Amino acid sequence: MKVKICGITRIEDALLAEQLGADAIGYIFYKPSKRYVSPESAKVISQKLSAFMLKVGVFVNESMEEINRIAGITQLNLIQLHGDEKPDMISKLALPSIKSFRMDEGFDFSVLDNYKCTNFLFDTFSKNEFGGTGKSFDWSVIPHSIRERIILAGGVSEKNIEEIYTKIKPYAVDVSSSLEESPGKKNHNKMKSFFQIINQLRSK
Q1: Integer Cα distance of 131 and 100 in angstroms
Q2: 96 pLDDT higher than 70
Q3: How many CA atoms lie within 13 A of 104 on its CB side?
Q4: Distance between CA atoms of 79 and 103, rounded to whole angstroms?
Q5: pTM of the complete model
Q6: Which of 40, 118, 160, 195 could form a disulfide with 96 if both were Cys (CB 3.0 to 4.6 A apart)?
Q7: What is the set of active-site residues?
Q8: Spatial separation of the C-alpha atoms in residues 21 and 43, rounded to whole Å
Q9: Range of the domain at 70
Q10: Rounded-to-integer distance, Cα 87 and Cα 99, Å
């Protein structure tokens, strides 16, 4: 199971994520978000990371032209669409993509067939926010047949990561608010504790 640390806004947080063994970091390029980072700042952070650290840009209902422009500036490897983007946008993007879906009661999993993405991310539904709620949803509703392609987000923390790893078995987890001191500022002790558990699970 791979780990993405999202909501990165500071160089020191990105470098620690890389040091601890994160597979990817996420930049949020959605201005209303409490974890927004400017493309210029993200570019500086990317330049400090190794070529083997995946850099994911998170966009919400942004134009294809602007997504591709920012992706070039910030040295992204993947684009994460976290809004209401339509399937035809995928083929127009300059990079491989992840499509996010916010899980509510009665979510129709057949809509995934319309999107030709690298992976899908499932997050908790909120009327007020596009992610970053820190709340989990009922993971058991995810069909077993697609779990190997799923990135699980929403309330992932050291308290439930063992259950996720052993029972849900997604392709990856996306962690943000549970590792923060405040929105956009990671708590390094929490990060170290989280990865200590991850490494113990991986070594079993």
Answers
A1: 9
A2: yes
A3: 5
A4: 20
A5: 0.93
A6: 118
A7: 6, 123
A8: 21
A9: 2-203
A10: 9
